[in-house]
Amino acid sequence: MKDGVLEGDISARSLDKDQNLLVEQYVEEIRAHKRRGVARAITLIESSRPEQAAVGQSILDQLLPDSGNALRIGITGPPGVGKSTFIEGLGLLLVEKGLRVAVLAVDPSSPVTGGSILGDKTRMETLSQSDSAFVRPSPSGGSLGGVAHRTREVMLLCEAAGYDVILIETVGIGQSEVTVSSMVDFFLVLLLPAGGDQLQGIKRGVMELADLLVVNKADGPTQLLAEKTRQEYDSALSLIRPSSKAWQPRALLSSALEREGLSEIWSAVESHHEALQSTGEFSQRRREQSRNWMWSLLNRGLREALDTDPKVAEALPQLEKDVQEQRRTPASAAQEILNDFLGQSH
């Protein structure tokens, strides 16, 4: 720590004159709805270089009053369910309705190289070409929860750029449901047509978080199976206590390939928004999400500071060895690490 500030705390860094001019330029471009400015500002926010990330955070600080006006929709589902096709179809529908749409598509990073394919912009080629849409693939960077580390900040930036709907596509891994549902207004889970034991594949926790289940690929030879699957999930949802008193989740059908069922799904999103607005739950959720976000960033910042602390780095190898060989309890070793980090005597 330096002067009571975490070393990794980019918001605490002061900018020089040229950097401040750059911030003003980006802010002006984003408020003018220039996609190039939005893309470049996101690159700064996502940067691992502290000086670039500091500029990105300064841009976001100035734009914060302009954010918060979009509808945030999280979309998850297992691999092969057709998330990208579904999101492109829904995005095109919204553009046709006169709305501006931003898609934040998170691609998994390789645990070996850290690289990411970032192919969603290619898969959503038609939507990407629309002047009313912005498609941004980002690597998860090994982040748990199926979203990138800076997805929340990027979402606010897109809102400040005047996008009406933000669609967040996750990589569809273990913790993605909980993480994404904690940052969006509407949580949609895509499912494949299934039968028998395969219907047990969706966890109860997912159904408790979902505002809507959508059985995709309801076309061709799987159409009848998709309807049967929808009925099964609809029945299951009726037995689960909804997370909101104002909304009862349900299951719908879609064929993203043929762009069928998308209008009904968007109607459900609008109905959900109206229901939660009428009870005040919508704004309450937003406030709670902001508080949780603060704690998430604080926990991450503290962990990063702990990992780079020289005293901790010196003591950690021996403490780990002592714990592994049962010469120290994990609790006492952890306490010693905290004492070293905080500069307290043992």
Summarize the structure.
With 346 residues, the protein is α/β, with parallel strands linked by helices. The chain contains 14 helices and 7 strands.
Report on this structure.
The chain is of the alpha/beta class. It folds into two domains: about 1-65, Up-down Bundle (Single alpha-helices involved in coiled-coils or other helix-helix interfaces), CATH 1.20.5; about 65-280, Rossmann fold, CATH 3.40.50.300. It has 14 helices and seven strands. The protein has helices at about 15-30, 35-45, 50-65, 85-95, 120-125, 125-130, 150-160, 175-180, 205-210, 225-235, 260-280, 280-310, 310-325, 330-340; strands spanning about 70-75, 100-105, 135-140, 165-170, 185-190, 210-215, 250-255. A seven-stranded parallel beta sheet has the order 3-2-4-1-5-6-7, sandwiched between helices. Strand 5, helix 9 (about 205-210) and strand 6 (about 210-215) form a beta-alpha-beta unit.
Structural features:
50% helix, alpha/beta, 14 helices, seven-stranded parallel β-sheet, Rossmann fold, Single alpha-helices involved in coiled-coils or other helix-helix interfaces, 346 residues
Task: Chart the SSEs and their pairings.
Elements (H helix, E strand, L loop, with lengths): L16 H15 L3 H12 L3 H14 L7 E6 L6 H14 L4 E7 L12 H4 L1 H4 L4 E7 L11 H10 L4 E5 L6 H6 L4 E6 L12 H6 L2 E4 L7 H15 L12 E4 L8 H18 L1 H28 L1 H15 L5 H13 L4
Parallel strand pairs: 1-4, 1-5, 2-3, 2-4, 5-6, 6-7
Domain module count: 2
Encode the helix/strand succession as letters.
Answer: HHHEHEHHEHEHEHEHEHHHH
Largest sheet: 7 strands, parallel
Kindly report the CATH topology of the largest domain: Rossmann fold
Note the overall shape: globular
Helix content: 40-55%
